[in-house]
Amino acid sequence: MEVQELLTALYSEEGRQDPYPWYAGLHRLGPASAVPPRAEHRTVAAVAVGYDLIDRLLRDPEWTKQPPPGWQDHEILRTFQTSMMFINPPDHTRMRHVFSHAFTPRRLGALKPVILRVVDELLDRMADAGGGVVDFVADFAYPIPALVMAEFIGIPSADLAWYREQVERIDEFLDVAGKTPQRLAAANTAAEELRVFYRGLLAHRRRSPGEDLITGLVEALDAGGVELTEEELISNLIVLFNASFVTTVYMFSNGLPLLLAHPETVAALPGDEELTRGCVDEVLRLESPVHFLARAAPVDTVLEGVPVARDDNVLIIIGAANRDPARFPAPDTFDPTRPGPPSLAFGVGLHFCLGAAVSRLEGCLALPRLFARFPRLAVTESPTYSGSLFLRGIDKLLISTGG
């Protein structure tokens, strides 16, 4: 199949539910493929799927993110373009410097008892569920990162249900097929409401300081100790919280069916830290939460034989790179002892995910406790996927705890 046919199939409902056969087809065409000028999905000049090529592009600071046309006219796009995740140096460098100090080994160590407490409370609730059937996403995968990051950042837990609704409206717009007027309007409203929410939270922390990230940032902001405006701070908090927990939710929900297909591995997880780390990394490789990125060429160039003009966008498919047969033997096989390069699930280079260490820690602490508590845990229905090609994950997963 040609690249145009593969992309059309990938964007279909069937492709959204299972993109991997189409990624394999793109790999057969090579590490990169040109997208014909008249192709249906010609928002990019080329598509990249090769691991080595994508690793190189993401590490090259000259390959930048381009703001969408008219971004100043929409609240959600203004939020993105004033946050470090969506902008380029020097503003990216300035903002990341501020937030990188929050994700220190000391802070990470302080999160461990928080994660353990949250996990044990959720496991207790699951054990008390009548009939022993629960929604793994609603009752475990979502609350862990939401509650942990809420405590870390300083968001009241009572607001999390409302917060999730706003995040979902933004995530729907972020999908490659989400740029409809209706989804843009919904995302604009969500961003406006989140900005009001954070302005109130900043004001509250000025009156009543705590031990959370927001308190520390507000104090530094008011003292003139950071190169950040209050509106930039709010933009980054919106994007940081969204990115920090949605990817972790999907790490858990995508990973559970994979793990349950290997009962010997599941049985060995409790007490085996090395195996647990390998399982978390292999889940992130096989079922990356983030599948699509884009970068613009800094100059006229050629990628693996594909000409790309200056300022043209290249579609970078992380989900395909992590299954590149040139780098991962038997790429579709789950192997927690697999040697080789790390996955690109959290990116590399300038935009490497700040919360990657937190996400991995949550996985390494939560999964062994889950299987130790419920050794006969089983999926009772086919999972419901998000249907997004940008953030791909299971949104609903009914399980029996086997109690």
Relevant terms:
alpha+beta; single chain; three-stranded antiparallel sheet; Cytochrome p450; globular; 403 residues; 17 helices; four-stranded mixed sheet
CATH topology: Cytochrome p450
Q: Kindly, what is the distance between the CA atoms of the first and last residues, rounded to a whole number of angstroms?
A: 49 Å
Trace the largest sheet across and list its strands. Answer: 1-2-7-4
Query: Rg, please?
Result: 21 Å
Oligomer: single chain
Number of strands: 11
CATH class: Mainly Alpha
Q: What is the CATH superfamily classification? A: Cytochrome P450
The helix/strand series, from N terminus to C terminus, equals HHHEEHHHHEHHHHHHHHEEEEHHEEEE
- Which spans have pLDDT < 50 for at least 5 consecutive residues? none
Structural class assignment: alpha+beta
What is the typical, i.e. mean, pLDDT?
91
CATH architecture: Orthogonal Bundle
Helix content: 40-55%
Shape: globular
Largest sheet: number of strands, sense, barrel closure: 4 strands, mixed
User: How many domains?
Assistant: 1
Total of DSSP H or I helical runs spanning 4+ residues: 17
